């Protein structure tokens, strides 16, 4: 009989951590051993994530004291923090990172888009890009997995099959729109309710940090030398991304 | 001293009529003489449009009984009704139509997109397309004015200056998003609050009836032989249209 | 080993029916045999309720042809229709009604609030009021169950324990607010998105049809001779009811 | 011919300041001379308040350097700051305060509800409570005016006429709901869009700082010895307060 997978979570107080906890709590083969958080350390998880109240008895801890017996860790930390933790993990421990730290294979591209030095490119080389639809077999056997960004996921789910099958030509325009939870759980000017609730606007024109991630993975699945025009907008809903993708088919498609 | 312009409104109970009434009521040189409505005939205007309560004493009437002394009529009726009224107007009366009836110069294009026969193409020939930014002088002297559609306005304000100055090449992609009031004042499935409030979706892909109107006017202001890819989406806000327009500049622009 | 309960649903195309289907589809001991609908008859259930797509293969039928082998029916019909069906059900069949038809024990009170004659008061006498928190044992053994109204549920969950334990005195004020899905799945003026999305307003002051239902059940659980002031409001959210209940404690409560 | 009133504004970068500016900019007899702001000092007003772009040329200043020639100042500062400024104003200068600093006549009540010492109670004695509907004549002649709080305004507009005319008896219940802009222009957890957009909840039960202000003014207009039960809720809209007020009439009212 199969034992449960023993899991630790670094950074469980944000929206990514909240969804991860919800999914793992309902998974029949997972046991959550610890969950770290910075500002919320010491508080019961069910108090911070009210939808999990009664489903979990743990409190957030400041740091994991002991990793022995842990099979897998998830990292749901702000960009730049996973690269501090991953190199220190035990050699056989599986890790799944939800941040942008290990998605990009080219250090200079990372540093240009994330505006900080990368201190763990050695570890990056061992990461598999965690988009199941394009990388299922590699993910199955990976020790280190880097989960795709939100806009990258939406765009790749649409474009990757077309590129993988060589169906399109020329410039591709992606007009992407995100809900407000994409900005995270911390209150900020761009998610202030009186102004967001009836607003729609474009931001970071053509320079979003998910662009190189999308192009890297399109080149991974097929022959990608096309131009990608990528525009991000803010929607007055809480969840979800909607990407309208405009591409020219090489020949008629049904 | 200038007398007031005496105005009649056909179809004042919808959202277009409501905004028109609000603007005219605050205009120092306009007197509103009559306002027609179908279902709301007999009701006080301030009762139907609560924001106008106390600003106007008139009630909606079923039809205009007497047009003598009227300088100008506005038509804010559902598509297909203005073409019944315009040919019967006195020869010198000015008319401004807010519907789609008189925007398109090609009868077959109209009939294809509006899915009904056009019965007043003779009158259409006298209409000026009422987009001030592209047609200011013609509008100033026109007897008959056909106001642009909502998506057409948003798109033309962005594209017309580029086309008029010959600045762009190739395919243009317009990703347009509309608020729910664009569907009118009548409750309908696509504006049912429980489903619209957190939704975003595409509709009428590439076939919106404003497409031929946009192309007609782009050809009017400049040399337009480009391809127009036009996509409409529904936003969960009440007002406004946001159009993201993607075009290739012939040369570098600041 | 226990067989599955075989269930039929009358009126599965509305919001009540949609939630009922979702719950029953994930219930390990239920088999759904038929689902009726009026306007949607003939359509696949997963096409009408997109969240159920892939979970159920049935299509809506106009009427149940054969009730043999059915253990229990649910009725999620507009008010006034369950009273036509219940008297014709086989004598041992269990039925759970979600409408207002069988909640009120006094025919004249029903007819005053629902503004229609009641044609099945004989059957009404056999119904148990289906609020588990106040009626658990009776529900367990009932053949016929009448589910509480939305406002009644919210109010009784707050007030019933206080009344059952004789803790309050004097007039009770209930200020209740409902989301827009409470008006049902049909588009209507009061759920038209452009007007509902930023609105909050009171309606049906002091006369909502759930008032007699609340008072009937308070008298059922305890000694209720107090005055109930009940006010309904519309909230610009899709789901849920929030009831603020003001009552005077007989003595200090913690 | 009357010269324009020359006005200075302390604290013009918040929502109160924005509305004040909008109203004064359209007033034919007002000239705005300076507008202070803390964090936004140095920025053009039209850049911070985009709806005022093009209507005003001033930039926010850190502090007013010279008050000579100023007829009247408005103070739209966070609570606790007006009491620092008002005592230093020239003796004849009119001042209108939008904060809670000068509304309450009893120092101990102020200090209990605002949780800070009051350092200018001498000046408080000269303030008139600025609710026009109850204090019109006193406001007309006042040098110092303290504008009512948001919840206090909504509640007093409903209750004051009943109390002034001695029409009600007994306990009054006020169930008040506010839009999110009531929390101000600074992003905060309670106005974070992903959580606020579909939420409704009660807060500060029975202890809101507007309660003593309401009771003080009810006692000012009439004979008020009744009990006030006052409950505040948060609505997922941006603007406005809706107060449902429950009171018992002494005799039948139409």
Provide the descriptors you would attach to this structure in a database record.
homotetramer; 254 residues; alpha/beta; six-stranded parallel beta sheet; four-stranded mixed beta sheet
Any overview of this molecule?
The structure is a homotetramer of 254-residue chains. By secondary structure, the first copy, chain A, is of the alpha/beta class. Chain A contains nine helices and ten strands. In chain A, the strands form two sheets. In chain A, strands 2-1-3-4-6-5 form a six-stranded parallel beta sheet, with helices on one face. In chain A, helix 3 (82-85) links the parallel strand 3 and strand 4 (94-97). The longest helix of chain A is centred in the middle third of the chain and has 15 residues, at 150-164. The N and C termini of chain A lie far apart (48 Å). The mean pLDDT of chain A is 96. Chains in contact: A-B, A-D, B-C, C-D.
Give the topology, please.
Four copies of one chain form a homotetramer.
Chain A: E1 5-10, H1 15-25, E2 30-35, H2 45-48, E3 72-75, H3 82-85, E4 94-97, H4 107-114, H5 121-124, E5 127-129, H6 132-141, E6 144-146, H7 150-164, E7 168-178, H8 193-196, E8 201-203, H9 210-221, E9 228-234, E10 241-249
Parallel strand pairs in A: 1-2, 1-3, 3-4, 4-6, 5-6, 7-9
Antiparallel strand pairs in A: 7-10, 8-9
Short description:
The structure is a homotetramer of 254-residue chains. The first copy, chain A, is of the alpha/beta class and 254 residues long.
Choose one word for the global shape of chain A: globular
The succession of helices and strands of chain A, N to C, reads EHEHEHEHHEHEHEHEHEE
Query: What's the story with the biggest beta sheet of chain A?
Result: 6 strands, parallel
Which oligomerization state do the chains in this entry correspond to? homotetramer
The helical percent of chain A reads 25-40%
Largest interface comes to: A-B, 22 and 22 residues
- The largest beta-sheet of chain A arranges its strands as 2-1-3-4-6-5
Q: What is the CA-atom radius of gyration of chain A, in angstroms?
A: 19 Å
Q: Give the helix/strand class of chain A.
A: alpha/beta
Distance between the termini of chain A: 48 Å
Summarize model confidence as the mean pLDDT of chain A: 96
């Amino acid at each position: 009989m199969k034992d449960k997978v023993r899991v630790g979570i670094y950074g469980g107080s944000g929206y990514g951590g909240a969804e991860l906890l919800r999914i793992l709590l309902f998974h029949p083969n997972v046991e959550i051993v610890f969950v770290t958080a910075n500002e919320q350390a010491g508080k019961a998880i069910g108090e911070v994530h009210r939808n999990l109240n009664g489903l979990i008895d743990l409190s957030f801890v400041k740091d994991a004291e002991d990793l022995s017996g842990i099979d897998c860790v998830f990292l749901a930390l702000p960009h730049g923090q996973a690269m501090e933790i991953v190199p220190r993990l035990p050699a056989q421990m599986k890790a799944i990172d939800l941040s942008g730290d290990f998605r990009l294979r080219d250090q200079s591209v990372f540093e240009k888009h994330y505006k900080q030095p990368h201190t763990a490119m050695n570890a990056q080389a061992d990461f598999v890009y965690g988009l199941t639809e394009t990388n299922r077999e590699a993910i199955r056997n990976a020790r280190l997995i880097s989960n795709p960004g939100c806009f990258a996921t939406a765009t790749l789910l649409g474009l990757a099959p077309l590129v993988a099958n060589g169906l399109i030509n020329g410039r591709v325009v992606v007009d992407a729109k995100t809900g407000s939870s994409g900005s995270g759980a911390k209150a900020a000017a761009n998610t202030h309710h009186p102004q967001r609730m009836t607003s729609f606007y474009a931001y970071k024109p053509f320079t979003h940090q998910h662009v190189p991630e999308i192009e890297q993975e399109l080149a991974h699945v097929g022959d990608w030398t096309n131009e990608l025009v990528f525009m991000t907008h803010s929607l007055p809903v809480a969840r979800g991304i909607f990407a309208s993708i405009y591409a020219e088919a090489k020949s008629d498609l049904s």
